Records
---
Amino acid sequence: MPDKPYSAYTAEDFALDDLFVRWVQHPDDEEVAAYWQNWLSNHPHRSQVVDVAREIITTGSRPAVPALSSEEISSVWGRIRESLQTMEDVRPLQPAVRAMVGWWYFIRTVAALLGVVLLIGWALWMQYGPNQCVSTINTLAHQTREIRLPDNSMVKLFPNSSVHYARCWNDESPRAVWLEGEADFAIVHRTDTSSARLFRVHTAGLTIEAVGTAFQVRHCDKGTRVALTSGQVNLLVKQQKPIRLKPGESIDVMTDSPKLYPSTNR
């Protein structure tokens, strides 16, 4: 008799075992019956699993439908062959139809790929496009805001003012903001003092260049006032030579007459 791990078998495993099936279906086989009776006496805790396996085999052995006679089987196969012979042959697609179908699938595939590309492009544009890379900050009446710029310079924006600047600064892009209203600036100093690396504040008719500086800018319809607290700034006005302010100095630039006028008060 086979040496199998019957003690670990499930009911389904027993139902698939040839020796066990023979015992269930042929209980008069004395040798097989003696083997399984001896095995059960040594493994009484497996009797319930064996009973379930017996039921599976017994149930599965019952015919679900009455068995067909050989004449009936021959008749069925005859009708199947006759049906196959009388079926109309499947005609292949005409070349023009095949070409049309091929183009249809090609156009549908291209359209799907184009849609994916456009969707990705739209997402990138929304994230990194020029209109999305600009920050504009406004203050209301009686509202003051402190803003940290991309290079860690600080801006204190006073009421009824606005400032906008590029959110993406790097070594290639200029450090610049555009101001309407009044703001205090505290600029981070950089060792590179070349013209391309200076910090710039733009107002109507005036550009302020700073290195590492603290200054105040007050812009209105009449003009712009710049007051320097520390460091140094250059004031650039159209058709005028640059003016450098010293700490404690302030100057006015009138809109209707773009000239520099030393301020009499701060």
---
Amino acid sequence: MEKDYLKDISQIRSIMEKSSRFISLSGLSGVLAGIYALIGAAIAHELVYTSEVIVYERLVLRDVRGNLTALIIIALSVLLLTIVTGIVLTKRKAKKEGVKSWDETTKRLLINLFIPLIAGGILVVIFYNQGLIALIAPVTLIFYGMGLINASHYTYRDIRFLGISEVILGLIASAVIGYGLLIWALGFGVLHIIYGALMYFKYER
């Protein structure tokens, strides 16, 4: 009798969690996003650190117009691959678990994620126009981390720790100017792979 009671409580808890949290997030998509980011960072490294027109350590931008188009293409390619991969794998996971991949919880998650991301994006444009290139990597890491912390209220709590880690890396990157791209690669590449793998083995196996 007691076992049946505990089982009922467990089922009720599971139903409540599914209705209030976005649990279709795919850990594998995090791993692949990290791989995309590392590839993009490697290509960007060749463009940025081999260019004689960028004085990265002094926060000065002289002229990156020659490499700007290539860097934008790299960034957009990584972003597009990440989004497409996330959508495909999330839908597949949701279908497998018999839950909706788009509902009010998903909307709240995205709103809380994108508010810091949009603010960070605006700040990146401002820094770029002012020539503060070395602050772009720290800003993207910090605001991305803040977005993850916000979004963690509507999905797995593990995402909060990823967000905190991203913020810490962003603060470190702002303190050690000249290593921004490397730390960016650690945050968006290595951390995504580690957390994606952990989430996959914890929730999807």
---
Amino acid sequence: MRRLVLFIAFITLMLIICLTLASSASSEVITAADNHISVWKVTNPNDTSEKNIIYLLGSLSITDKSIFPLNEQIEKIYNESSKIIVETDSTKTTQDQTVTALLKYGLLSKTTIDKVLTKEQYNKADALIKKYTQNKKSLSTYKSFMPWVIESLVSNLVISSSQNFLQNPIPSYFIGKAKKDGKSIVEIESPDSQLSRLSSMSYSLQSSLLENTIKAIENDSETVKKATVLWKDGDIEGLINLYSFINATQSTVIQKTFDCVTKSLKSGGKYFAIADISRLTGENGIINMLKKNGYKVEQL
């Protein structure tokens, strides 16, 4: 009986996620030009041929619809690239496979969520779940889930209820475009390994991710609107000041992305890579790692 309840709860979560991703991917896009973009050109320092290039596009996990139309230079870079690199391609995973992976990686062991979160974290997450679910479910319904699952649930509930918010719209858009155009898609990690990475983080770090999401929601849509404007202007310092990125929770995927970028540069050709901007920036971000390892990196 307990297993059935957990399974139904996960199905509910996946339906929310699938509906949100579907609405994000189906956004109509028209190109336009801006003065600055959140894209970096990466080359080997002694390579003047312009044949081996990685273009790194930093994306926002949550934006509003004003992010479209995209800058025409971004579209041009995509068109000139032979392959795209993404953190993960969730479109190739069936809902059954995703539910199975969530059941494998998303359950707490010998404890419950009320004992993992602080009282303040629990109460705020509980209030948001009650606010954004039609039948006013409480966090106790999901008491056997890890904090990262609760974070995913809360963010997807909020986004799916919004008329203007989009979740990961840029990776979704370019994955769909690449499949239509017949371009190769290189994954940094599979959906299964992504969930495995999340579940391997300490409960404390997972709770910090949940707390950051709650803070962003509490700041309401103005934060998302401002972030979208800063992103379109290529104002990276403004984004860093707006959001408190937790690089400690991302070290594994940052290293995987760095390895993928450097390997692709050695193999030759032009690649269009999309990664969350929080992984690119900062002292321990991918851009700084590339510079320290002798690569030439310039923002376009």
